[in-house]
Amino acid sequence: MNHAPLVHYLGENHTDQRPIPRRRVSSDPCLPERLPTTGFLQREAEIDAPKAILRQLRRSPTPSPPNSPEPELETEEESSGHQRRPSLSSLASSASSIKSFGSSLIQRRQDARPNSAWKEPQPFEVLRAVERKDVMYLMEIRDRSFHLLVRMSGGITPLLHAMRLGQSHRDVAVILLGAFSRWVNHLEDDQMDNPRTKMVLKALRTNLKLAIDYGLTKTQGSDLTASFLQTLIMSQGDTWVLGQAANIGLALRAGTEGKPVKTSDAAVRKFATRELGKADLIATLADYIANATADLLMMGAWSMAAEILELERIPTYYFARDDRVYKAFVERLDEHKNAIQFKLTKRLKWQLRVLRTVLEGRTTTYRNKVELLAGELDEGEGV
Questions:
Q1: What pTM, to 2 d.p., does this model score?
Q2: Of the residues 16, 130, 325, 339, which has the fewest C-beta atoms closer than 10 A?
């Protein structure tokens, strides 16, 4: 091999050449990005998990609906923030101690006079009981002669009288509102066609409208307004609920293009705006509107199924009364699951399962449930 170049290089004088120093690397320390917190991961899981379940329903639309077990009893802390709020019954919570005290006094009176006959009081006696804050007597009237609590006498009702007496009688007004709540939510199915029941509903509607106009809403939040709308819908009969359920059924039949959730929400908001006429009151009704929107969706979906299967529809007076619509909806799905499996369209069966899956349980609010339904039934891929 020819090593001449290497020998020549070694023979040269390299003493004057110095090594060229390398440029120092500047120090620029950085910390690696930390992992998300447990709280963030939990929130993301709670948001993504329901969506994953709905995607699975879309991919496998044929299984029959599962039997829904009875929900386990929750602790007070668990249920207080997540349970579906009844639109009326929450009115009495702020006066629960007074009501429980009154109930105990009523029980004592009944124990002391087990055989005494009830004498219906005169209207002036009811107003006097309001003035004296005689909670025991008012609650006894609630149990025995409820219509006297909503009857107008001399241009005034017991509720309006309590409101006019001022802040000192605010608790009495709340107790009367709680009595209205109890009466509406404990109406039985066979009572709805009773003319006397319809008369009391109309009188109850007048009471609540007077309370709203007088300004009790400012101190009671959205509860009173929701009570008014609930009673108003019940007192108007079947017309509005039947019409809107039919519209929602048509929207569901059109699939995602029909925007059924958006249509349902708009119908409830339009009704509330027409009856209240106050934007600030509508803004406080988010929970009630979400509940009513979900009820319309279930009633609309079942109306289509009932038409095909030749079955009865969900009674209109179930609407916006706690969770009556959901219970009736699930009962009908379980009772007729074989007919649903073989006679309904693929899209309708999927929509029924989506409604049941999203709306069951008490671990999230109805506002969140409606948002999830909108993402699937309005904006999703559809079936």
A1: 0.64
A2: 16
